[in-house]
Amino acid sequence: MNLELVRFRSMIEECCWIRRSLTRTLNSASWWAMSVALSMALGTPAVSQPSNQREIPFENSRVFGLFVVRVEANGRPAVLIVDTGSNVTIISPELADVAPGTLDNAASPSRGSGFIGRGVFRRATLKVGSVTWRDHRVVVTDTRELSKSLGQRVDGMLGIDFFSEFEVMVVDLKNHKLILTP
User: Is 2 strand, coil or helix?
Assistant: First the structure.
């Protein structure tokens, strides 16, 4: 056989192999795309979600659009701002059974940004969605001025100390939920 004819035949075989491979890939991709579209239409996840994920619904505050979550703090209902910029979780004295006069002698930070006030450290148990955060160190401070500035009752802030218990935190803005993965 002529050398050029051999090269031409080899190129044709390679093109046929590429076409078959591409067709298989496209068929796989098409099936995957169709399964995703079908599962979206049916409202079921196409890709299975890890069963250990925790979903926490949130609302937007009326004034600044902050994320607020409804929780239980020491067995009482509470509304906390999601504040990943805060090193510690903060709750009001009412939730921690701290007498109002106790905060008069409390320490006050000399620097920092955002919400600053007098506070004391206490231990609290928070139930946030399906997550129970038992006996953790929190700061207790008066949240009345914060509530007044937001135009709604706020019992504290859920800080990064809570969220650091998880490997991944996703904010699902469309469905108003935090998705936490240990």
Answer: coil
The overall average pLDDT reported for the chain is 78
- Distance, CA of 155 to CA of 140 (rounded, Å): 10
CB distance 59 to 68 below 8 Å: yes
Q: How many residues does the chain have?
A: 182
Q: What secondary structure letter does DSSP report for 9?
A: H
Cα gap 78→12, rounded to integer Å: 71
H or E stretch covering 31: helix 3-42
d(C-alpha 98, C-alpha 140), whole Å: 8
Nearest Cα to 102, choosing from 69, 139, 48?
139
What 3-state DSSP class applies to 61? coil
Task: Write the single-letter amino acid at 42.
Answer: L
pLDDT, tens digit, 9 for 90 and up, residues 89-146? 999 999 998 876 666 655 545 444 455 667 889 999 999 999 999 999 999 998 888 8
- Domain 54-181 - what CATH class? mainly beta
Q: Looking at the predicted structure, is the pLDDT value of residue 55 above 70?
A: yes
Share of the chain above pLDDT 90, in %: 49
N-term to C-term CA, the chain: 66
Per-residue confidence at 31, pLDDT binned at 50, 70, 90?
Answer: very low
How many helices (DSSP H) and strands (DSSP E) are in the chain?
A: 4, 10
